Amino acid sequence: MDIQELKYVLALAEYQNFTVAAEACSLSQSSLSKHLLKIEEEIGNISLFDRSKRPVLLTTAGEEFVQYARRITEEYETLLLSMEKYNVPDNSTLRIGIIPVIGRFGFIPLIKSFKETLSPVDSVEIIDRPSKELLKLLEKNEIDLALLAISPNQALKTSLTSYHLMENELCLIVNEKHRFAHRSSVDLNEMSAEVFAIPDNETGMYDLCLSACQASGAKLKKVKTYRNIETILDLVEDGECVSLLTARLLFTYKRQSLRAVHLTHPVKSIIALVIQNSAKFNGLTHDFVDFARNWRVQLDLKEF
């Protein structure tokens, strides 16, 4: 048996259905059955599944087999990831994923300065996507690192490592004529009847807004989502709604008619650099992480 066949066993154990497991493995049902029979013969004609039942269930032997199979496949994946650090071509391109608003936090000069340190054969490619899409690209190894927004308590996959570069405070954003425009702070429970315009659910800011509601116990009744921050600010400026954004982000748009009001139950946004664990030893990625972590001090001094 090989690693792929172990994965077939794990798929059937997970889905408990031959048709669904075969589709997940990109096999025909008959081909999946043949592979499983081959494995059972190889281990001494021991049945791993009770095929007479629906859903298909593991036998006692199958349950033990799956424990080992899962451990072996996980170690195999870890091995492949570990070996990637040695597969760095002389002519390297560092693929940096960024969220659309990252430039407003002062990170484009960081990338520019890093590029100036590179040798002539190295280069940087920038990919602009929302936070959640960047995490997916990282997992698929389609980018080398990501600069994105996360919440302080956000649980990333164990295959990822994050480095916190900047902390921002989430605030209520209102226009200057709003009844809370001159408040020092506000409880979101006071805003339950308001119309909220917030970034859409592919962004890290969306999760931060949910965290703010959970922290205060508030249940917002009217929420509309938008991808473009400018659209949100236009709507707030016209008095059509209020929003939840970081004060630092609002400041960069220089909308004089808008106000940022602190939340009674504060929620922080973290601008983080996220990489695959296996990338820690990749030359360019490692260099950029060190460069960015040293750059952080300069950014933190730029308070508004």
Question: How do the strands and helices of this protein lay out in sequence?
Answer:
Layout: H1 3-15, H2 18-24, H3 29-42, E1 49-50, E2 57-58, H4 60-83, E3 93-98, H5 108-116, E4 123-128, H6 131-139, E5 145-150, E6 160-175, E7 185-186, E8 195-199, H7 204-216, E9 222-226, H8 229-237, E10 243-246, H9 247-253, E11 258-263, E12 268-276, H10 283-300
Parallel strand pairs: 3-4, 3-5, 7-11, 8-9
Antiparallel strand pairs: 1-2, 5-12, 6-10, 6-11, 6-12
Helix pairs in contact: 1-2, 1-4, 2-3
- The value of Rg in angstroms is 25 Å
Q: What is the SS-derived class?
A: alpha/beta
**Helical segment tally?**
10
CATH topology of the largest domain: D-Maltodextrin-Binding Protein, domain 2
Largest sheet: 8 strands, mixed
Number of domains: 3
Give a count of the beta strands, DSSP E runs of length 2 or more. 12
Give the distance, in angstroms, between the N- and C-terminal Cα atoms.
62 Å
What is the element string, with H for helices and E for strands? Answer: HHHEEHEHEHEEEEHEHEHEEH
Beta-strand share of residues: 15-25%
Q: What is the typical, i.e. mean, pLDDT?
A: 86
CATH architecture of the largest domain: 3-Layer(aba) Sandwich
Low-pLDDT parts are 299-304
Shape type: flat
Give the % helix: 40-55%
Look at the structure and give the CATH class of the largest domain.
Answer: Alpha Beta
Classified in CATH, the superfamily of the largest domain is: Periplasmic binding protein-like II
Protein name: LysR family transcriptional regulator
Organism: Emergencia timonensis
InterPro entries: HTH-type_LysR_regulators, LysR_HTH_N, LysR_subst-bd, WH-like_DNA-bd_sf, WH_DNA-bd_sf
Family: Belongs to the LysR transcriptional regulatory family.
